[in-house]
Amino acid sequence: MIDLYTPQAIWGRELKHYRKAAGLTQSQLAEKIHFSESLISGVETGQLPASPEFADACDKVLNTGGALRRLLDWRKAQQFPSWFGKWRAREPEATELRAYEPLLVPGLLQTEAYARVVMHGDEVALRARLERQAILTREDPQPPIFRCVIDEAVLYRPIGEPKDMRGQLEYLCSIISPALSIQVIPHGMHPGLLSGFTIATFDGGIDVAYVDTALHGLTVNDHEEVRYAIRKFESIRTEALPLRMSIDLIKRTAEERWTCRVGGWRGGFSWREGLGPSFRRFPGRVCHPSGRDQVLRSVSNPRHLDPCMRFSRTRLTDVVHRRHSAFPARACPPWARRRFHTG
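Given the sequence above, the corresponding structure tokens read:
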């Protein structure tokens, strides 16, 4: 049921007032402003938000003197979308939170730099997100227990600059405590491929779920649906790495993928120098001391490679990490053959 007194619903009623004052039906207004009749209906009932372009078009046709566009200023003071309001009101009251995220670091655990990129630089939304995180560090009432599972892809998805990703992963490792745990579910087929969700538990054992969708988030109170979400979370958590192994993976990813030094990667791998001194040579292959071979294909000139492995402007087609995988001499680029005498 639509709340008739939200700013969005009030704005819709103002549009309806001006439309009727102009003697137009929704269909006639749609023809004049080149927006769909269904959109006008949804806006007038408060079910759909109005865009600035929509407001400008209505102001011009209805001769409002720009009133509808000015009335959209209510959004500047809105920290959260209207559909998030129900969850935002319940979240601070939870005694336990269980979250699964397949795409991004959960909002409650994001650093400022990471969140700024996710919020597309919206400082109001960023400030609101950082204020939400205070529930994890508050003293009174006691912070909720937070159990989080993230997909391994989250560790590799570039959000912002490499230093932002490294800072985010290091932050995840630093906040682990008896009341806050983070586990990583490895790449592959698992029960959590569809969407992320969070389950909040309140005093008295009441559970409420929040589910992400492509359009907006949903706060779910139905008992059966929430029980299904709980079972889904437990099945995902069962397949995730244990806590210590998850933290080791996060630390290793921060070090190996998101750390670079001038001229190349930490650990001696330098694109300008070919394969750096930390690589050992074996007949017919080049192997890293960690035991993982790096197979480099279609490299014509290593000097053109970006030291932080942002490949969009290079001819590097792939870097394959595999244990005990051969690197045939004939597959080596000329510069690698010269350096390691592989033939």
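The CA atoms of residues 22 and 263 lie 67 Å apart. Try to locate this feature in the token string yourself.
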